[in-house]
Amino acid sequence: MLIPPAQKELEEMPVDLQAALGALIKVLKENGRLAPPQGKLVDRTERIFEMRVEENELQGRMLYYYIDKDGAVYGLVAFIKKKRKTPKEELDLARQRLRLLKQGVWREEHHEEP
Question: What CA–CA distance (Å, rounded) separates 90 from 61?
Answer without folding.
Answer: 10
